[in-house]
């Protein structure tokens, strides 16, 4: 996948990679890139840093938080070491400064393809729930849970923090890192929707309200 908001450069990269034998999808903004990348079907992602909607550093951070292991090559016009480090710390595998040659792009992608694959994340379990971060499928007591993209993100966050009391501020900071403020009632709505899908008749609740704090995932 190539993610670049400059249409002319995006077309150049598309043609060059297709001529090199690759099948290429494209995106022009951060939210679309995050949505497309979340299905974990790409061999590599070429990701510009400066994107509308959400920058590339936030996108790669969100994908890594979802357990997506696809190698990411970031494109950046920024030249400071701090910017490069920020992208790598967020989860990018390599970066390429603009302007660059197509031959170098191909070489960087070949280098990424030769790296040892990252260890597949293990499923997360608790309260009868089993969640696979790679396929993003979840079950409870063998019953498949039909979750939206955002509900899945909530479930993974709660499972990874099972037993902890999580404030609404903690949840907002973790799940909306690029937003300065998220209304607490928005979080409450998502929790209510998630609960309605987690709990079937006869099953004990696993997502509890902690009075004065927020929520906690656990058997009791």
Descriptive overview:
- By secondary structure, the protein is of the alpha/beta class.
- The protein folds into two domains: 2-114, Rossmann fold (3-Layer(aba) Sandwich), CATH 3.40.50; 124-217, Arc Repressor Mutant, subunit A.
- Helices cover 40% and strands 18% of the residues.
- It contains eight helices and twelve strands.
- The strands form three sheets. A five-stranded parallel β-sheet has the order 2-1-3-4-5, with helices on both faces. Strands 6-7-8-9 form a four-stranded antiparallel β-sheet, with helices on one face.
- A hairpin with a 4-residue loop joins β7 and β8 (137-140).
- The relative contact order is 0.10.
Q: Secondary structure elements and their pairing?
A:
Elements: E1 2-3, H1 7-19, E2 26-27, H2 30-37, E3 45-48, H3 56-65, E4 72-76, H4 81-90, E5 94-97, H5 102-114, E6 124-126, E7 129-132, E8 137-140, E9 143-144, H6 149-160, E10 166-167, H7 168-175, H8 184-198, E11 207-210, E12 214-217
Helix pairs in contact: 2-3, 6-8
Order the strands across the largest sheet as they lie in space: 2-1-3-4-5
Q: Report the CATH topology name of the largest domain.
A: Rossmann fold
Instruction: Please give the number of β-strands.
Output: 12
CATH architectural arrangement of the largest domain: 3-Layer(aba) Sandwich
Q: Kindly state the percentage of residues in helix.
A: 40-55%
Determine the structural class based on helices, strands and strand pairing.
Answer: alpha/beta
What is the general shape? elongated
Count of spatially separate domains? 2
Identify low-pLDDT runs: none
Approximately how much beta-strand content do the residues carry?
15-25%
Query: What is the distance, rounded to the nearest whole angstrom, between the alpha carbons of the first and last residues?
Result: 43 Å
Q: Strand-and-helix sequence, N→C?
A: EHEHEHEHEHEEEEHEHHEE
CATH class of the largest domain: Alpha Beta
Largest sheet: 5 strands, parallel
Question: In CATH, what is the homologous superfamily of the largest domain?
Answer: Response regulator
Question: Using only CA atoms, what is the Rg?
Answer: 19 Å
* Tally of contiguous helical segments: 8
């Amino acid at each position: 996948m190539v993610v670049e908001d400059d249409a002319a450069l995006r077309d150049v990269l598309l043609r060059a990679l297709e001529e090199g034998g690759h099948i290429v999808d494209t995106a022009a903004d951060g939210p679309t890139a995050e949505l497309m990348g979340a299905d974990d079907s790409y061999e590599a992602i070429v990701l510009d840093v400066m994107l509308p909607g959400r920058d590339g550093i936030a996108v790669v951070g969100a994908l890594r938080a979802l357990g997506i292991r696809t190698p990411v090559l970031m494109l950046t016009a920024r030249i400071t070491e701090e910017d490069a480090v920020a992208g790598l710390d967020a989860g990018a595998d390599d970066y390429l400064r603009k302007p660059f040659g197509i031959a170098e792009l191909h070489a960087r992608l070949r280098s990424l393809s030769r790296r040892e694959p990252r260890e597949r994340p293990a499923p997360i379990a608790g309260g009868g729930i089993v969640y696979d971060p790679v396929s993003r499928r979840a079950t409870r007591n063998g019953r498949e849970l039909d979750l939206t993209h955002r509900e899945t993100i909530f479930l993974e966050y709660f499972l990874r923090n099972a037993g902890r009391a999580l404030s609404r501020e903690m949840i907002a900071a973790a799940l909306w890192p690029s937003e300065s403020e998220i209304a607490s009632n928005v979080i409450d709505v998502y929790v209510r929707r998630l609960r309605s899908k987690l709990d079937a008749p006869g099953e004990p609740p696993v997502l509890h309200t902690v009075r004065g704090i927020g929520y906690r995932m656990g058997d009791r």
